[in-house]
Amino acid sequence: MQVDLSGKTALVTGGAHGIGRAIALALGANGARVAVTDIDQNGLLDVDTVLQEACNAHLCLRVDVTDYDSMLGAVRGVETAWGSFDILVNNAGINTSGGRVVLHEYSPETWDKILNVDLNGVYHTSRAALPAMLRAGGGRIVNISSVAGLVPLRLQSAFVAAKAAVANLTRSMALEYGPQGVLVNCVAPGSTLTRGTEALFYGSDGSYSDKAASLISHIPLGRPGKVEEIAAAVLFLCAPEASYINGVVLPVDGGWLAGYNRDW
Question: What dotted CATH number matches 9-194+226-252?
Answer without folding.
Answer: 3.40.50.720
